[in-house]
Design brief:
Helices cover 33% and strands 20% of the residues. The chain has 404 residues and is of the alpha/beta class. It has two domains: 4-84 and 237-395, Alkaline Phosphatase, subunit A (3-Layer(aba) Sandwich), CATH 3.40.720.10; 91-232, Alpha-Beta Plaits, CATH 3.30.70.
Length: 404
């Protein structure tokens, strides 16, 4: 595949046109009692926009591939997710404000519940963040170094945390310990290369897993173990604002998405803790930026929990803020998801994601509303998420003609 970033970097131009990308994480779904969560939701504002603009479907990577949140978002921002592969750990670390230097290793952790060696709950019942902070304080006291490598823990939200390893001869060429599903044992990390740093790192990760379990024994909180994934070092990526000639603002309340957008060079607001606060930040900063990324996390969380009704409510809540976006008259508004998370499936899936583009240059798809079923009929068709950014730039008249 050709390098979309190098092509767009040569065509992008500065302009006063504004772009808003609203991402409802895990938006796509499957029918439950005949309707997906998006179809069951009352979304009169999105439906109205869909009927007067253009719609389609996005494949985060390519058909049949179930993406993680990192690659799915990279694709939305115009980065080939196959070429630019980033570990979840570094994204989570940056997102919670951990200082990560070249040579450091970061991993995203889940506190979990293990019974007789088997993972029974990968999220420990989504423990409150305050409980998480209490556990992290205990772990930092109990575990500070393994085989000459310094260890530090930082709280995330609910069951999530970040661990950073610093010093020593370590690298990211190791596998995760997270089995990604219940009913399995915590995995042993193994090196993915024959290098000595990889072998050493795998041993340290396994020792760390054991030490965490020991530290949590009898501590008095629900989690009694932890699984690690996305073990990674700091990557070098082309910068979003330089490629596309945009001054970009990232508005998200979850660490991973803050970390990813920081990594590609967006200005990241770390203050929002709710959808309401996210839109307040958006309105306050509207005059200062050309491009806005607004991320709604809980649509995905409720999908993973199998909570169809709450996923519907979170979509409806997001729809209620659409008039506040339109009051500011952005030149382009795109509404989509990074991937599908059907509540009936309780996990990310490979199904394409609905897309709506609002612009004065939009063709009218003639659909009756914003849903998976209606977006199938849209004039955009079914395209890779990788091409979304070029579409948004084109609608904003921010691309020069290609070739003579």
């Amino acid at each position: 595949m050709y390098d979309t970033i190098s092509i767009l970097a040569g065509l992008a131009k500065k302009s006063d046109k504004k772009i808003v990308l609203l991402v409802m994480d895990g938006l796509g779904g499957l029918p439950y009692k005949g309707k997906t969560a998006l179809e069951a939701a009352s979304t009169r504002n999105l439906d109205k926009l869909a009927s007067k603009n253009e719609c389609g479907l996005l494949d985060p990577v390519f058909p049949g591939i179930t993406p993680g949140s990192g690659p799915a978002h990279l694709a939305l921002f115009g980065y080939d997710p196959v070429k630019y592969q980033i570990g979840r750990g570094i994204l989570e670390a940056l997102g919670v404000g951990v200082e990560v230097n070249k040579g450091d290793l970061a991993a995203r952790g889940n506190f979990c519940i293990v019974e007789k060696g088997i993972v029974k709950d990968r999220r420990a019942g989504r423990i409150p963040t305050e409980v998480n902070k209490k556990i992290i304080k205990h772990l930092n006291k109990e575990i500070s170094e393994i085989e000459g490598v310094k260890v530090s823990f930082t709280s995330g939200k609910e069951h999530r945390f970040v661990v950073r390893l610093r010093g020593g001869n370590i690298c990211g060429e190791v596998t995760d310990t997270d089995p990604q599903k219940v009913g399995e044992k915590i995995l042993k990390s193994v090196p993915t290369s024959d290098s000595e740093p990889a072998k050493k790192t795998a041993g340290i990760i396994n020792k760390l897993t054991e030490e965490i379990q020991k530290a949590l024994e009898g501590f008095g909180e629900k989690p009694n173990a932890a699984v690690l994934r996305g073990i990674s070092t700091y990557p070098d990526l082309p910068q979003f604002q330089e490629i596309y000639k945009l001054k970009a603002k990232s508005i998200a309340d979850y660490p991973m998405y803050r970390g990813l957008t920081q990594l590609i060079g967006m200005d990241v607001d770390r203050t929002p803790t709710s959808v309401e606060e996210e839109f307040a930040v958006f309105k306050k900063s509207y005059k200062d930026y050309d491009y806005f990324y607004i991320h709604i996390k809980k649509v995905d969380s409720y999908g993973e929990d199998g909570n169809f009704e709450e996923k519907v409510k979170k979509i409806e809540e997001t729809d209620s803020y659409i008039p506040e976006i339109m009051e500011l008259s952005p030149d382009v508004l795109a509404v989509t998801g990074d991937h599908s998370t059907p509540a009936t499936y309780k996990a990310h899936s490979w199904h394409p994601v609905p897309l709506l583009i609002v612009s004065k240059w939009a063709r009218i798809s003639g659909v009756s509303g914003f849903s998976e079923r209606e977006c199938c009929k849209g004039s955009i068709g079914r395209i890779p998420s990788l091409y979304l950014t070029s579409l948004l730039l084109a609608h904003a008249e921010r691309l020069d003609k290609f070739g003579a």
